[in-house]
Specification:
The protein is of the alpha/beta class and 328 residues long. The chain is built from 15 helices and 5 strands. Strand 2 (45-49), helix 2 (58-62) and strand 3 form a beta-alpha-beta unit. Helix 6 runs parallel beside helix 8 (190-197) and helix 11 crosses helix 13 (270-279). The longest helix is centred in the last third of the chain and has 21 residues, at 285-305. The mean pLDDT is 86.
């Protein structure tokens, strides 16, 4: 096999290397190759194998010449867990792959099985990055790309609301985008996302936080009681309160400027800069300090430091709302 890197667009490259730990992206990498293979030959034989199924000698059997020269896709999951002898088999195959066969290696990355990873790269494998999304900004980018891939338009606020509502699971985010694009015509905005996904834990907790940092104590308490009655974990609510107050503090201490400039400086999307600017009216540095202390006390209370988590949350919500009105 040539040592130059295969084009990412060549779905039928002899070897595809999908690297990372994001299951949805790994599955999509496999699906793309299988779809391309079956488009070229509807009778393509697909074998999906885990390390236990790929024993020494198994790869040689699966890649042995066929009388009918049928196209095959061999998917090897968790390739980093293959035995040393099987890795030798795979490395030997990489040196001389068979034209009618596409080998797809799914590798978690990292130190384990790095020799196989390096060998596949050296052999010129087509590589697909499937990194775990750990940051909210990465999930927001994912949602935007999903809408774009489906040829639909969604406002920045709608994308953020969807991330806040669904959470960190990319499969659920992708499913939500698919559902919205199937059910709704035109541009998808925040109100539409709210109608579909109101009541999700993360959305409920952020609703409590938004009302509290805006100084609307009665509405915040109402949202809090509704959230708790629907099973929202108290720790999600203290986390949302902390994020809301910290955003106020960060923007209060930042230099003035355009939302785009502040977004880069503070690590927030521009639309959130505008929202926090509206919420921060009435806040003072002392108010931010008081609110953060109240949230910290509530966090300790809901994590076992107190007898009544609900009371601890109510107390924190009222304290945050009052802190928001110190200047008024």
């Amino acid at each position: 096999m040539a040592t130059r890197k295969t084009s990412p667009d060549d779905l039928l490259a002899p070897v595809t290397l999908a690297v990372g730990q994001e299951d949805l992206l790994l599955d999509r990498a496999v699906q793309e190759v299988v779809a391309a293979a079956r488009a070229a030959d509807a009778d393509t034989d697909v074998r999906d194998l885990n390390p236990e199924q790929l024993q020494p000698g198994t790869l040689a059997e699966l890649t042995s010449p066929s009388l009918f020269a049928e196209r095959k896709v061999l998917v090897v999951r968790n390739a980093q867990d293959l035995s040393a002898d099987t890795i030798k088999d795979v490395k030997a195959y990489l040196a001389s792959p068979i034209e009618e066969i596409t080998l797809v290696l799914l590798h978690a990355g990292g130190a384990k099985g790095k020799g196989l990873l390096d060998a596949a790269r050296k052999a010129g494998a087509r590589e697909v990055a499937c990194p775990k999304t750990t940051k909210p900004a990465e999930r927001l980018t994912f949602v935007r790309q999903e809408f774009r891939a489906l040829g639909r338009s969604a406002t920045p606020e709608a994308c953020q609301a969807l991330v806040d509502s669904i959470g960190s699971d990319l499969r659920e985010l992708a499913s939500a985008v698919s559902q919205l694009t199937a059910d709704v015509e035109g541009t998808i905005d925040e109100a539409i996302v709210g109608r579909y996904y109101t009541g999700r834990a993360e959305a409920s907790s952020f609703n409590v936080a938004d009302r509290a940092v805006e100084g609307r104590a009665a509405e915040a308490l109402e949202a809090l009681r509704w959230s708790l009655s629907t099973g929202v974990p108290p720790v999600l609510i203290t986390s949302a309160l902390a994020q809301g107050v910290r955003a106020i503090g960060k923007l209060s201490s930042a230099r003035g400027g355009r939302p785009a400039d502040l977004a880069r400086e503070l690590g927030m999307p521009p639309w959130k800069i505008d929202r926090v600017r509206q919420q921060m009216r009435g806040w003072t540095p002392d108010g931010v300090s008081l609110a953060l202390r109240a949230v910290a006390e509530a966090d300790a209370g809901v994590k076992g430091g107190g007898d009544d988590p609900e009371y601890a949350l109510e107390k924190a919500v009222v304290a945050v709302a009052r802190a928001a009105r110190l200047r008024r």
